[in-house]
UniProtKB/TrEMBL annotation:
<comment type="function">
    <text>Oxidized purine nucleoside triphosphate hydrolase which is a prominent sanitizer of the oxidized nucleotide pool. Catalyzes the hydrolysis of 2-oxo-dATP (2-hydroxy-dATP) into 2-oxo-dAMP. Also has a significant hydrolase activity toward 2-oxo-ATP, 8-oxo-dGTP and 8-oxo-dATP. Through the hydrolysis of oxidized purine nucleoside triphosphates, prevents their incorporation into DNA and the subsequent transversions A:T to C:G and G:C to T:A. Also catalyzes the hydrolysis of methylated purine nucleoside triphosphate preventing their integration into DNA.</text>
</comment>
<keyword id="KW-0539">Nucleus</keyword>
<dbReference type="GO" id="GO:0008828">
    <property type="term" value="F:dATP diphosphatase activity"/>
</dbReference>
<dbReference type="InterPro" id="IPR003563">
    <property type="entry name" value="8ODP"/>
</dbReference>
<keyword id="KW-0460">Magnesium</keyword>
<dbReference type="GO" id="GO:0005634">
    <property type="term" value="C:nucleus"/>
</dbReference>
<dbReference type="GO" id="GO:0008413">
    <property type="term" value="F:8-oxo-7,8-dihydroguanosine triphosphate pyrophosphatase activity"/>
</dbReference>
<dbReference type="Pfam" id="PF00293">
    <property type="entry name" value="NUDIX"/>
</dbReference>
<dbReference type="GO" id="GO:0042262">
    <property type="term" value="P:DNA protection"/>
</dbReference>
<dbReference type="InterPro" id="IPR015797">
    <property type="entry name" value="NUDIX_hydrolase-like_dom_sf"/>
</dbReference>
<comment type="subunit">
    <text>Monomer.</text>
</comment>
<feature type="domain" description="Nudix hydrolase">
    <location>
        <begin position="103"/>
        <end position="229"/>
    </location>
</feature>
<protein>
    <recommendedName>
        <fullName>Oxidized purine nucleoside triphosphate hydrolase</fullName>
        <ecNumber>3.6.1.56</ecNumber>
    </recommendedName>
</protein>
<keyword id="KW-0378">Hydrolase</keyword>
<dbReference type="InterPro" id="IPR020084">
    <property type="entry name" value="NUDIX_hydrolase_CS"/>
</dbReference>
<dbReference type="GO" id="GO:0046872">
    <property type="term" value="F:metal ion binding"/>
</dbReference>
<keyword id="KW-0479">Metal-binding</keyword>
């Protein structure tokens, strides 16, 4: 049995017909269509023609209307009249839970903090151009998040961290992207090589007191202090027009 807004439907055997008890008109009606197998109550607030994708022929099961069905179908319809009504009070149809999509983009971000200074790169092209940021990017197919973090750091800055550890997980929601961005934030104090400019980034050392938050993403001042203080954290940030932060949550956690 299927509950559609004001109708409770029951399939008639051997015929492509459904009968329904109309909750408002208090009568049994016949519908000359069969709901599709994937019909869900998610659409139950819509108008009936929208639910079934057409204009169904609906008739009360009385008088001339009843004679349009075979005697077997009529017998079932009449016999079911009370059963359908009684089932209304015992049938519970739960609204399907609309789960948030778990599909998301996985990215990394590495911040090097050494001798009281932070290594940041000025983004030269692409997303975030003109902003200072840590070094990172997308996790490629076939690599772990840790591997992606090490690779992106080396490609964008020319250095290899030797004590990299994960400190945070940040989730970003952009109004022009249906996928959430899950960014794994890493912290390092030791590295091999010398920072050098690449096609992607121009590295610069800043003292902690002089971190250029005015030319960085607007969420950075909210979690950089946690990172530099040695804490682990999780955050969720919503942006409109790509760069305008509209809401956020952030918390210190004991483990990631």
């Amino acid at each position: 049995m299927v509950l559609l807004s004001r109708l409770v439907l029951r399939k008639l055997p051997k015929v492509s017909r459904y009968i329904a008890w109309d909750l408002e008109l208090k009568t049994v009606v016949a519908l000359s269509w069969a709901p599709s197998s994937n019909l869900s109550t998610r659409n139950s607030s819509c108008a009936l023609p929208h639910i079934i994708g057409g204009s169904p022929r609906v008739r009360e099961l009385s008088g001339a209307g009843l004679r349009k069905y075979s005697s077997a179908a009529m017998s079932m319809a009449v016999d079911d009249r009370e059963a359908v009504k009684q089932s209304i009070t015992s049938t519970v149809v739960e609204e399907p839970v609309q789960k948030e999509s778990t599909a998301r983009k996985l990215l990394t971000l590495v911040i090097i903090h050494s001798d009281g200074k932070v290594l940041l790169g000025l983004k030269k092209r692409g997303f975030g151009k003109g902003y200072y940021n840590g070094f990172g990017g997308k996790v490629e197919k076939g690599e772990t998040i840790d591997q992606a973090a090490a690779r992106e750091l080396q490609e964008e800055s020319g250095v290899t961290a030797t004590d990299m550890e994960k400190r945070g997980i940040l989730t970003f929601h952009f109004d022009n992207d249906p996928l959430a961005w899950e960014v794994h934030v890493y912290y390092a104090t030791k590295f091999l090589g010398e920072p050098c400019e690449t096609d992607e980034m121009a590295p610069t050392w800043f003292s902690v007191a002089d971190i250029p938050y005015d030319v960085m993403w607007s969420d950075d001042p909210l979690w950089y202090p946690l990172l530099l203080a040695g804490q682990q954290f999780k955050g969720d940030f919503c942006f409109t027009n790509t760069t305008t932060l509209t809401s956020h949550t952030i918390e210190v956690v004991s483990s990631l």
